[in-house]
Design brief:
Layout: H1 2-10, E1 34-36, E2 42-44, H2 45-48, E3 72-73, H3 75-83, E4 85-87, E5 94-96, H4 97-106, H5 108-115, H6 152-162, E6 170-171, H7 173-177, E7 186-187, H8 190-197, H9 202-205, H10 212-226
Amino acid sequence: MASRAIALFRHSKNLISCLDNVTCSICLEIYELPHSISCGHIFCKNCLASYSGIVEPACPLCRKPFKSSSISKASDMESKIASSKTICTGCEKEISLLKYRHHQTSCEKLKTKAEGNPPVEFPTTVVKNTAIDAPNRHTFTCPYCGVQNFDTHGLRTHVNEKHMANPEGVVCPICASMPWGDASQTSANFVTHLNLRHKFEYDTLVDFELDDDAALQQAIQASMQES
């Protein structure tokens, strides 16, 4: 099967084997409505919206300051995603990049493969509707130094104080504990991901039957109602 996948990559210019260049470094997903900022780096439109309340925002990758007025549609990247495909590492089917986000949540072989990964030091992914064996979503372990028992706010504070300059790519323990999480997916910019993606306590504010984006929106709305 692996040889078939390799052969497909060799014979199609529209197939992308490495998704790094089409992946947003904030949400770690394939770009959705890609937009660029003045330094040239590209992110999802909704991910950049997280910066709307910041007076002097800086690029999550290069730290160069940018203005909201400099944000523009990344048409070339949008066209690339619209015209490209990849091969699912679970079922090895050829999938359009536009549909790959949804495919990852529905591919049974991909879920089975993820569940077979070696255990990590924080709770691993479980399939939805397994409430009895649900992972611990109350406390988390720092993926850099191994200090345990942080809630979401505590982990954010610890990482920003102790590991701001750490360039090592790590797995987000919060994402890994969620039903939609992938305990093998490494975040190249964990500090930025943590600050933007996990501003709210998922454990008390969301329905875990929702997907990632819907859960984030529910957490934001619930937090605003409580404030």
